[in-house]
Amino acid sequence: MQLFSKDNVMMLAVVYDRFRSTSGSPLPHGTELMLVREGEAELEAADGTQISTRANDVLLLTREGSRMVSRTGDFHTLSVVFDLRYFFDEEWRVFDKEVLDAFYVRTGTGLHRMAGNTATAAHISSLLCEIEKELFLEPPVVYVIKALMLTAYAYAVRFFDDNAKMCEANKLPHYDVILHTVTYMHEHLAEPITLETLAAQAAMSRSYYCTVFKRIMGTTAWEYLLKLRVERAISLLTTEGATYSITEVQNKCGFNGSAAFNRYFKQLTGKTPSQYRKEKHNACF
């Protein structure tokens, strides 16, 4: 996994040979474009919808809870995953929010396939490989990566707009309010954050906030917060030259004690923080 981050917060990652699981989803979360490089597999979304995929296919994933049902031979993939919030905030804006909304929240299963023999899949495959190449430059060129990524997602959205009716995110009730609480999570990650705190930020009751958050973001608010914290921990543990101790990383990421930190970190990555650091996953930015 190669992380591309800003201020120790994950913006984009390239991930190899994996697929989401309904239990203990591998990091990172977020909207995803996946290129199947080799093999065949049967994939299932959270609602039970199944999709068969094979080499050269491109998949668009926008929801948590998809998993691999079966595979044939070696199944190798290249995924580019990112949080679009960083591309329409004040500092990093490339396009207006209204343009990016179409990418951020989509209806249906959140599992969409482009056959490998289509022109769109070929275009996106090439762009994903270019993003992979750019991430290994020293240093990576930020705006080249952003341009490639947004071009790839624009091709994907146009493809699915031509094949199925999709929801515009800015028409979803409370969309902007939920994004406000997501920003709050990022900005206060090292501090104690409760569901009551987030609900107050949204001016909603706790139960209603949780319902709306899951409908818009595709995961619970608590799961989203835990993944943000683990992603921040990964960045702090693996950034070149970082000298933070495990305890310092734990505190900077808002975990209340080493037991909770180790439990959630291993739940989401399969390794303890110490083991993960030893793997020498080098951050690219």
Determine Rg (CA atoms, Å): 18 Å
Strand content: 15-25%
Alpha-beta classification: alpha+beta
The helix-strand sequence is: EEEEEEHEHHHHHHHHH
Number of strands: 7
Largest sheet descriptor = 7 strands, antiparallel
What's the end-to-end separation, in Å?
Answer: 13 Å
Share in helix: 40-55%
Which segments are poorly predicted (pLDDT under 50) over 5 or more consecutive residues? 22-27, 164-171, 281-285
Shape: globular
* Average pLDDT for all residues: 78
Counting DSSP H or I runs of 4 or more residues, the number of helices is: 10
Can you tell me about this structure?
This protein has 285 residues and is α+β, with helices and mostly antiparallel strands. Helices cover 42% and strands 20% of the residues. It contains ten helices and seven strands. It has helices at 97-104, 119-135, 142-161, 175-187, 195-202, 206-217, 221-238, 246-252, 258-269, 273-278; strands spanning 2-6, 9-16, 31-44, 50-54, 58-61, 67-82, 111-114. Strands 1, 2, 3, 4, 5, 6 and 7 form a seven-stranded antiparallel β-sheet that branches. A hairpin with a 2-residue loop joins strand 1 (2-6) and strand 2 (9-16). The two termini are 13 Å apart.
Secondary structure elements and their pairing?
Blueprint lengths: L1 E5 L2 E8 L14 E14 L5 E5 L3 E4 L5 E16 L14 H8 L6 E4 L4 H17 L6 H20 L13 H13 L7 H8 L3 H12 L3 H18 L7 H7 L5 H12 L3 H6 L7
Antiparallel strand pairs: 1-2, 2-6, 3-4, 3-5, 3-6, 5-7
Helix pairs in contact: 2-3, 4-5, 5-6, 7-8, 7-9
